[in-house]
Amino acid sequence: MFCPTKIWRRWHRKVNVNQRRFAIASALAATALPALVMARGHRIDEVAEFPLVVDDSLTNLKKTKEGVAFLQRFGAYPDVEKSRDSRKVRCGAGKARNRRFTQRRGPLIIYEQSNGLDRAFRNIPGVQTATVDNLNLLDLAPGGHLGRFVIWTKSAFEKLDKLFGTYEKPSELKKGFLLPGRMMTNADLARIINSDEVQSALRPAVSTPLILPKKRNAVVKKAVRVALNPYYATVQKREAEKRNLGDAAKANVLAAKRAEQKARNLLRPRRKAFYRAAVKEGDVTF
Q: Which of 30, 53, 157, 195 lies in disulfide reach of 146, CB 3.0 to 4.6 Å?
């Protein structure tokens, strides 16, 4: 919808709870794939492993310099520098609406219980913190793009099984939620299609292309219409005979009228001569 400042703009959408859980679970799974994280633009060349899980002592940090030292130690600081360098002035009227700058997202630190962690990382550009109990899809997939660089604490990472369950047992904290199962046990689709079992059950490839006949209009083409409805030829023949009989009757009537008119034309000079002679002799007066 255009005109975002109008009061009737539909800002919010109602989404089913199960769909939201499905989306968050998918976004969490994407954070464990280095290819998706790198495709999103994060700098993770120096990160040792994925997913990156650290000890719970991280939650005891209280100083910004301690947070910077932690990020440098585990190879996550290049992503912070990328986020810091991306800061620029926003285009358009948003500069006057308390959102003057735009900036790329950096690492996301997820913890279970903070003992000062949020204060240690709040002044580092691009770094965000979140509790594992309140995961937000906008934090896990900013802009709708999967693959956020996430740093986990040990307790938060272990609590995921209770929150979302496993493939064998449902979630303990989300009623009625079970992780969606895999649609394919083997993701190599090309290998499945080219396997002997599948190829033996397929029909052989068509060597000559199928040539479809040109479509003809049955309304205009009489032969096509007769092929679709054989009785149409009988109807046409009957109508032609009826038309011929009518034409013959009209011709006879017209010929009779013309003969009668011709006879009248022949009698007209005689009548004129008769009246002239009668007027001359004085038999007829006016």
A: 30
Task: Centre a 10 Å sphere on the Cβ of residue 103 and count the other Cβ atoms it contains.
Answer: 14
Domain 17-91+98-179 homologous superfamily, CATH: Ribosomal protein L4/L1 (3.40.1370.10)
Q: Measured between alpha carbons, how far is 279 from 274 in angstroms, rounded to an integer?
A: 9
Residues sharing a CB contact under 8 Å with residue 12, sequence separation 6 or more, in sequence order: none
Cα 119 to Cα 61: distance, rounded to the nearest angstrom: 8
Instruction: Judge contact between 67 and 116, C-beta under 8 A.
Output: no
- Contact of 129 with 106, CB cutoff 8 Å: no
Residue ranges covered by each domain of the chain: 17-91+98-179, 222-281
Q: Does the pLDDT value for residue 286 go beyond 60? A: no
What digits encode the pLDDT tens for the residues 206-234?
788 788 888 889 888 989 999 999 999 99
Predicted TM-score (pTM) of the model is 0.65
